[in-house]
Amino acid sequence: MSEHVLVINAGSSSLKYSLIDAGSGKAAGSGLVERIGEAEGRHLHRGPDGETSTDGKIDTHEDALRAALDAFETHGPSLDAVEVAAVGHRVVHGGSRFADPVLIDDELIDAVTALVPLAPLHNPANLEGMRVARRLFPELPQVAVFDTAFHQTLEPAAYTYAVPLAWRDDHDIRRYGFHGTSHAFVSAESARFLGRDPAGLNVIVLHLGNGCSAAAIRGGVSVDTSMGMTPLEGLVMGSRSGDLDPAIHAHLVRELGWTVEEVDHALNFDSGLKGLAGGNDFRELSTRVEAGDPVAQLAFDVYCHRIKKYVGAYYAVLGTVDAIVFTAGVGQNGADVRAASLGGLERLGIRIDAQRNDAAADGSRLVSADDSPVAVLVIPTNEEWQIAREALAVVGGS
Ligand code: AMP
């Protein structure tokens, strides 16, 4: 029987879990506990017999994980029957210290705690997930897989901000990049799809989900990426602004009397597509664009223009590009975004095939023309599988 890993992604008020068959990447069971600590929580569990949903108050992350274990027991698959080899945790920020997944022990917990100032919105919840899982599964090895790790290969020229040395030396201010598990998975899958050796392939990956990031990957190694010290930098996202003039921050503080927390919150949660058009769901945005809504059209144009700028920038960074790969919710489904972002780049050897691009399909596929020197691909991401494989490699599984 192939080995299974329980993958846990703990957010501030949610806990996502998947029991992954590390051989096939298939989820034997999975679920999401939402609104932890709120008046009414919700637990969705998917097992062999389909989906079950339970509403009710869920006070803590420990209660959430206990609810998940109960659901595995009641609705399957039984965790005893599948023999879980490890627990893999998604951890957002590993700073400069972690370029690889790491077995979780007290020292690792302390190290991730020390990184909280770099990721105050994410690392505390990830830590809580690790603590709770260690209490509930004391017998299982647990592994932290960092979202930043894949980008630790960036050269200083790519990761250094042009700010005073003391900021960089004393406060770890530099670019780290995120979505690393997705970029690693998708770039490796694109090599497999094209039947090429990853070591000889230059790829631009566009991860367009609720969070969005681009990465320039040379021979399987990340050389640049759009997110920075935090996930706020880069592309336009669901509710994050992406790139903007840092002076806007000071302007808001001076002109509106906002606190630093208010500015930070607004740029992370009220900006991006939500700020531009009032909502962060791309499906709704596309429907509005089709209906001729000019507000939605501007949001769409800003979103795609930013992607195109990064494609051009990363083309220059890489020198030659073999493939441009779209992934995540919008990247996999948004034919309109793919067409608009890469339109007009024929002189760069990028030619989308409209019929292939528009065809409704799941799975990995080519959407460029046969005579396009640069292959344009859609590759579904599978961060859980990547985490499972990396966790298993750490604990010595196959
Ligand atoms: P993710 O973070 O990868 O789950 O992606 C979430 C984003 O993908 C949301 O903006 C969704 O609206 C968008 N999305 C999901 N399905 C579709 C679809 N069929 N067409 C366009 N966007 C989609």
UniProtKB/TrEMBL annotation:
<feature type="binding site">
    <location>
        <position position="9"/>
    </location>
    <ligand>
        <name>Mg(2+)</name>
    </ligand>
</feature>
<comment type="pathway">
    <text>Metabolic intermediate biosynthesis; acetyl-CoA biosynthesis; acetyl-CoA from acetate: step 1/2.</text>
</comment>
<feature type="binding site">
    <location>
        <begin position="207"/>
        <end position="211"/>
    </location>
    <ligand>
        <name>ATP</name>
    </ligand>
</feature>
<dbReference type="InterPro" id="IPR004372">
    <property type="entry name" value="Ac/propionate_kinase"/>
</dbReference>
<protein>
    <recommendedName>
        <fullName>Acetate kinase</fullName>
        <ecNumber>2.7.2.1</ecNumber>
    </recommendedName>
</protein>
<feature type="site" description="Transition state stabilizer">
    <location>
        <position position="240"/>
    </location>
</feature>
<dbReference type="Pfam" id="PF00871">
    <property type="entry name" value="Acetate_kinase"/>
</dbReference>
<dbReference type="InterPro" id="IPR023865">
    <property type="entry name" value="Aliphatic_acid_kinase_CS"/>
</dbReference>
<keyword id="KW-0547">Nucleotide-binding</keyword>
<feature type="site" description="Transition state stabilizer">
    <location>
        <position position="179"/>
    </location>
</feature>
<dbReference type="InterPro" id="IPR043129">
    <property type="entry name" value="ATPase_NBD"/>
</dbReference>
<feature type="binding site">
    <location>
        <position position="16"/>
    </location>
    <ligand>
        <name>ATP</name>
    </ligand>
</feature>
<comment type="function">
    <text>Catalyzes the formation of acetyl phosphate from acetate and ATP. Can also catalyze the reverse reaction.</text>
</comment>
<comment type="similarity">
    <text>Belongs to the acetokinase family.</text>
</comment>
<keyword id="KW-0479">Metal-binding</keyword>
<feature type="active site" description="Proton donor/acceptor">
    <location>
        <position position="147"/>
    </location>
</feature>
<keyword id="KW-0460">Magnesium</keyword>
<comment type="subunit">
    <text>Homodimer.</text>
</comment>
<keyword id="KW-0808">Transferase</keyword>
<keyword id="KW-0418">Kinase</keyword>
<feature type="binding site">
    <location>
        <begin position="281"/>
        <end position="283"/>
    </location>
    <ligand>
        <name>ATP</name>
    </ligand>
</feature>
<feature type="binding site">
    <location>
        <position position="90"/>
    </location>
    <ligand>
        <name>substrate</name>
    </ligand>
</feature>
<keyword id="KW-0963">Cytoplasm</keyword>
<feature type="binding site">
    <location>
        <position position="383"/>
    </location>
    <ligand>
        <name>Mg(2+)</name>
    </ligand>
</feature>
<dbReference type="InterPro" id="IPR000890">
    <property type="entry name" value="Aliphatic_acid_kin_short-chain"/>
</dbReference>
<keyword id="KW-0067">ATP-binding</keyword>
<dbReference type="GO" id="GO:0016301">
    <property type="term" value="F:kinase activity"/>
</dbReference>
